[in-house]
Design goal:
The chain is α/β, with parallel strands linked by helices. Strand 4, helix 6 and strand 5 form a beta-alpha-beta unit.
Length: 288
């Protein structure tokens, strides 16, 4: 993704249409999301952890996330939003994290108020840092960005630790400290989903997690509620697990792999991963 990613994402967020960013975690999933016509993608920490064989327990380091972000961002031509967990430490660590993500072509990151090591927002057992510590991290993130269009998303996990009121207060404090978008994680009812955009003092993000704690309406309804951005972290992770389990069961039980669907032969497979571009490079060099 070029340096125009942050400005393009700001343009999308300021528009009238909900920005939907399916979850990606490698170059393959990035290609799928862009080919499907989505205008943005979200690099999910849970997905990156899963791709490395780990649960989303805060086991993935900043270096692992930023290096993977570089792979995903250079694969995409649409803006990439990334999970940045707790900022990976104190205000100094947050400062470095912003610079590292920004340098790799990411358009936005979200930083949350959990104690490190964090846990998936839809699991029990989370703990929070103080409001002051959280706001200090958001201030550090805002100050660290070199491109003023790079977006900082203030996320609070307080809903399932303390209360919805506390979560909204924390997100609003993050927005007051300079964050661009508010993210209240894991509301527990459709009424709460509807309440958040009315009370958060800035653009809102909704996290849609299949099998998670938040009931979610249709995306058209999400837009009508006033949300500007919806991330769907497990959109491909769940589909991959379901299809993978089924395909491997067929191979194991029948001795034959699942047939490739019509039109997905090897040349088409390579085309979807940029073969024409590389063929053009070779042809241009050989012609010279």
């Amino acid at each position: 993704m070029s340096s125009s990613g942050p400005s393009r994402l700001r343009e999308l967020i300021s528009g009238n249409q909900l920005v939907v960013a399916p979850g990606v975690y490698d170059g393959l999933t990035a290609r799928l999301v862009e080919a499907a016509g989505f205008t943005a993608a979200y690099m999910t920490g849970a997905g990156v952890a899963a791709s490395l064989g780990y649960p989303d327990y805060g086991l993935i380091t900043m270096n692992e996330m930023t290096e993977r972000a570089g792979v995903v961002a250079r694969t995409l031509s649409v803006p990439l939003i990334s999970d940045a967990d707790t900022g990976y430490g104190n205000e100094l660590n947050v400062t470095r994290a912003v610079r590292e993500f920004e340098a790799r072509g990411v358009a936005a990151i979200h930083i949350e108020d959990q104690v490190a090591p964090k846990r998936c927002g839809h699991l029990a057992g989370k703990q929070l840092v103080s409001l002051n510590e959280y706001v200090s991290k958001i201030r550090a993130a805002v100050a660290a960005r070199r491109n003023p269009d790079f977006l900082i998303i203030a996320r609070s996990d307080a809903r399932t630790v303390t209360s919805l009121d506390d979560a909204i207060e924390r997100v609003n404090a993050g927005l007051a400290a300079g964050a661009d978008i508010g993210f209240v994680e894991s509301p527990l009812s459709l009424d709460e989903v509807a309440e958040i955009p009315r009370r958060v003092k800035g653009p809102c993000l909704l996290n849609i997690v299949q099998g998670g704690r938040t009931p979610y309406p249709n995306l058209h309804e999400v837009q009508q509620l006033g949300y500007k951005l919806a991330i769907v972290p497990a959109a491909l992770l769940v589909s991959t697990l379901v299809a993978g389990d089924a395909g491997l069961a067929t191979l194991r039980d029948s001795g034959m792999p699942v047939d490739a669907p019509a039109g997905l032969d090897i040349p088409e497979l390579f085309r979807r991963f940029g073969a024409p571009e590389w063929d053009e490079v070779r042809a241009r060099v050989e012609a010279a």
